[in-house]
């Protein structure tokens, strides 16, 4: 997820842009490849993760994993899009793999990444596969025009941008489609919503 901030849809009216985002998401958003979810950027941070997913990270089934042949970079289009890209065979990416996200939680992650990221499959060093959101360079180019690719570091980002990123994530998640619209579109069921409410009560 990039920092929308004051540059949210610079070429369009923000309200109209949000309506378009919601409608597009309900029509063609993709939340799962039936694989564990790999996180490599801001969602590796517990604060951002809980804002987006709604569950404390320590209550997930998670593990550190390595992805061979990939590295993190930032797509700089006036605002930042951290992403993973294929690199040479001697490059290794560290990431966080979470294997027990519910359909509701996967939907929240997909909305957080919408719509400059696409869901793809990547291989892990141990032979397993994971699903991960990777920047859609064509979509970014269409929205912003030219861009540059530059290095991106999780540690550097967390040291300098975590508070702003948490606030930005919280604001963006408030603008997601309502539960009933997502249920009607088939992203999850009413039972998933009830389960989430029960779980949140048990977390205190």
Care to give the gist of this entry?
By secondary structure, the chain is an alpha+beta fold. It has helices at residues 14-28, 46-53, 103-113, 137-144, 154-173, 179-184, 190-203, and strands at residues 37-39, 62-68, 70-76, 80-86, 92-98, 117-123, 129-135, 148-151. The strands form three sheets. A three-stranded antiparallel β-sheet has the order 1-5-2, with no helix packed on it. A three-stranded antiparallel β-sheet has the order 4-3-8, with no helix packed on it. A two-stranded antiparallel sheet has the order 6-7.
Outline the structure in words.
This protein is α+β, with helices and mostly antiparallel strands. The protein has helices at residues 14-28, 46-53, 103-113, 137-144, 154-173, 179-184, 190-203, and strands spanning 37-39, 62-68, 70-76, 80-86, 92-98, 117-123, 129-135, 148-151. It has seven helices and eight strands; from the N terminus they run αβαββββαββαβααα. Strands 1-5-2 form a three-stranded antiparallel sheet, with no helix packed on it. A three-stranded antiparallel sheet has the order 4-3-8, with no helix packed on it. Strands 6-7 form a two-stranded antiparallel sheet.
Main sheet record: 3 strands, antiparallel
State the assembly state of the protein chains.
Answer: single chain
- Unreliable residue stretches: 1-12
Tally of separate helices: 7
Characteristic terms for this protein:
globular; disordered N terminus; 204 residues; 7 helices; three-stranded antiparallel sheet; alpha+beta; 8 strands
Task: Give the topology, please.
Blueprint (H helix, E strand, L loop, with lengths): L13 H15 L8 E3 L6 H8 L8 E7 L1 E7 L3 E7 L5 E7 L4 H11 L3 E7 L5 E7 L1 H8 L3 E4 L2 H20 L5 H6 L5 H14 L1
Antiparallel strand pairs: 1-5, 2-5, 3-4, 3-8, 6-7
């Amino acid at each position: 997820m990039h920092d929308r901030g004051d540059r949210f849809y610079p070429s369009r009216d923000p309200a109209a842009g949000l309506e378009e985002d919601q409608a597009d998401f309900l029509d063609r958003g993709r939340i799962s490849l039936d694989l564990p979810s790999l996180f490599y950027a801001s969602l590796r941070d517990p604060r951002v993760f809980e804002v987006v997913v709604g569950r404390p990270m320590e209550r997930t089934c998670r593990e550190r994993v390595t992805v061979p042949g990939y590295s993190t970079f930032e797509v700089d289009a006036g605002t930042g899009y951290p992403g993973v890209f294929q690199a040479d065979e001697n490059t290794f990416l560290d990431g966080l793999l979470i294997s027990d996200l519910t359909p509701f939680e996967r939907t929240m992650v997909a909305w957080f990444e919408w719509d400059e990221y696409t869901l793809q499959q990547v291989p892990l060093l141990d032979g397993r596969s994971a699903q991960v959101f990777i920047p859609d360079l064509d979509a970014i180019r269409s929205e912003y025009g030219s861009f540059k690719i530059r290095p991106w570091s999780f540690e550097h980002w967390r040291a300098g941008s975590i508070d702003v990123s948490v606030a930005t994530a919280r604001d963006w998640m408030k603008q997601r489609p309502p539960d009933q619209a997502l249920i009607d579109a088939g992203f999850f069921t009413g039972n998933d919503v009830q389960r989430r409410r029960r779980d949140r009560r048990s977390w205190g």
